[in-house]
## 1
Amino acid sequence: MGEKNGAVYVREFDPQKDCSGIEEVERKCEVGPSGKLSLFTDLLGDPICRVRNSPAYLMLVAEMVVDKENKETKEIVGMIRGCIKTVTCGKRFSRTGKNSNDPLKPLPVYTKVAYILGLRVSPSHRRMKIGLKLVSRIEEWFRENGAEYSYIATENDNQPSVNLFTNKCGYTKFRTPSILVQPVYAHRVRIPNRVTIIKLTPPEAESFYRRRFSTTEFFPRDIDSVLNNKLNLGTFLAVPSSTFPPGSWVGSDNFLADLPESWAVLSVWNCKDVFTLEVKGASRVKKVFAKTTRIVDRVLPWLRLPSVPEVFRPFGLHFLYGLGGEGPLAVKFVRALCGFAHNLAKEKGCGVVATEVLGVEPLRLGIPHWKKLSCAEDLWCIKRLGEDYSDGSVGDWTKSPPGLSIFVDPREF
């Protein structure tokens, strides 16, 4: 006897037989509104590419039993991806005085957190509680693997997604970072002579981030895995040329022991080898205008005119993460680092450079971006997965007020 027609079953993704069905659902879900620009994502044949580099991950698919030509078959109608990692959720002060030589220096408080991304339900199968079933099943896996919290990121104006998670799944609105996107021009961005940019080795970068950023919200405990990943293109430090002329680098430990008045740092992640993007729905006039700006920029690079990148064909991006800095010139140093990252993206053939920061991030002023390409308010929602966990020294993280900064893990962008 066959399975019930119309029944929906959730199971783990099988790369041997599910790829074509998943691509079909992705294609159906990314049909944009008529007459408007839409952003399409190509996962380059790897449906789990956006979680593959996480410490633990899972992808589930929803199958529906259907009759086609009097033959019972199963059709993939939805999917969801999730991953688990340990991140900073707060900070505390040492009561024993064992925190190095400074008992007043804050220590990170870590928690195991799960992240949901890539929830898709075929448009013809919505309003059938398939999305709810997928979320419930992946939350079961989160709990089984010890995750204390689960969070998701969605567009603030994506009302169906917001309603699903906040009204039906028990999530609460938590943080509202901004995704800032800068196009890659045909010309190189000039870096000021007063700034020296130093590339840190992965061990130096790890030491730097752990000592300066480990108490930042969402800082990954396995930062060493991130920095040593083949997709990480490097960590770059901007310092005053007057203090650190080229060739005078003393190492991160010595640098941290005697910081200059101003400095800034960021790392670059190569998303181009994970997925590509494409803008569809543009009119012929817009395409011709964009092409004209690129031609002018390429022929007259000394004018340094902003040009629209080739976004109407598949293009790659670099993601900037781990941004930080201090001092009166920190904003200018961040701008210099972003210029350096732009030039690196140009060399690698990328169309845009992107980053994600909180709206109140002090260094945001130094991040060049185009408003039309950026998302002013992304929405992160969070849920506590169990009430039997210890509150620890930060209490219930879901109720904590936002700080000035967050650490966005590039593995999940």
## 2
Amino acid sequence: MPTGSCLCAEITIAYEGDPVHRAICYCHDDRKISNTQIYQVLKTSFKVTKGQLKTYTKVSDRGNEISNHFCGTCGTTLYRSGGAESTSDKIGICAGVLDDQSLIDNPPAIEVYVEKRPPWVKQVEGAIQLNGQYEIVSS
């Protein structure tokens, strides 16, 4: 069972199984939070195993409410929930919080908001390219 924690280890998380999606998102919010891979896992396979999270909810670029769940002590965002209806049964773990960093050795399978990708970042070879969250640019 993969586990993770915030920087100060006051909050710990775990999930069962494999991620539904491995993605990197270049939207404004994700670039501010971490700009790392996001592992989407089913809510039913995820749990907070230690600590009390703080939550900040805002309206996303697409007009959906999305919540950031973070440690009130060190400020690390551990995961996000909400967003599009198609992801309502999933949460997006910030892959950088995972304890076993070899889990992120594989590149993301999906790149989201590719129109906002910094020009110095190369396209991930073989990854599905999404303009925003919905339109496939290439696969």
